Amino acid sequence: MKYKTKLKLVVCTILFSTITISTWAITNSNNNKSDAVEHPTTVNTVGRINASLQVLPINESIDKADLIAKVEIVKTEKEISKPSQKTILAAKIIETIKADSRNENIDVIHILQNGNSTALINGNKIFQPAEQYVLFLKRAVGEEYDLTNTYWILGEETNIYEDLGNGLLSKWALTDADLTEVEEKQTASKNAVSGTQILSEDKFKAFIQNTQD
To answer: Is 212 helix (H, G, I), strand (E, B) or coil?
Structure first.
């Protein structure tokens, strides 16, 4: 009888130990899961939107632009998501190549560029402070842009010319046969981007001036 009582005590002890271990395992597992939720890994991703653009001959771009200027980007002012992704940037004018007939004495402008930090349009990067560009610009129309000297880029990447330094400009997209006469033939610069057209800045500005005359 004593033997049976001892046996029952041993079995009960084993069962209690098993339950205790199982309970600890489940609790520990749940605690680990809680840690995973409380400390998630954040991955920032930027989308891409492919968009078609109206491409104008260089002569027509010069004619239609309200302002053609070499600018230096100062800072990002604001991002817009609706009706489409855009970034508004402040820029100072370094040189005016074609003045805006409505406002010839401007030093600082705002530029509407397609794309923002959540979505790049056609994979084009967003302008960054201290970068310099020659841009073909149109006045932005709308009450929110009144008295703000805000412009959008005519033809977007097809009329963006990035300053590479050393008197060179990089046309972001679409080689233009009409600009071959102002191309810089020595395009071995380490800054040259594949698929772009490398131009002499001085020759390009002279080309614009001569086309206006």
So the answer is: helix
Q: What is the mean pLDDT of the chain?
A: 77
- Pairing type for strands 160-165 and 132-139 reads antiparallel
The answer to whether 142 and 175 are in contact (CB under 8 A) is no
Evaluate whether 70 touches 160 at the Cβ level (below 8 Å): no
* Number of alpha carbons in the 13 Å side-chain half-sphere of residue 3: 0
Q: Are 179 and 203 in contact (CB under 8 A)?
A: no
Spatial distance between the Cα atoms of 68 and 103, rounded to a whole number of angstroms: 13
- Burial status of residue 76 (CB atoms within 10 A of its CB: 0-12, 13-18, 19 or more): middle
CA–CA distance, 95 with 68 (Å, rounded to integer): 9
Backbone torsion region of residue 48, taken as left when φ is above 0, otherwise alpha when ψ lies between -120 and 50, otherwise beta: beta
Question: Nearest Cα to 208, choosing from 99, 110, 101?
Answer: 99
Report whether 153 contacts 172 (CB < 8 A). no
Distance of CA 173 to the CA centre of its chain: 16
pTM of the model: 0.72
Residue 11: pLDDT above 60?
Answer: no
Task: Say what the pLDDT of residue 162 is.
Answer: 96
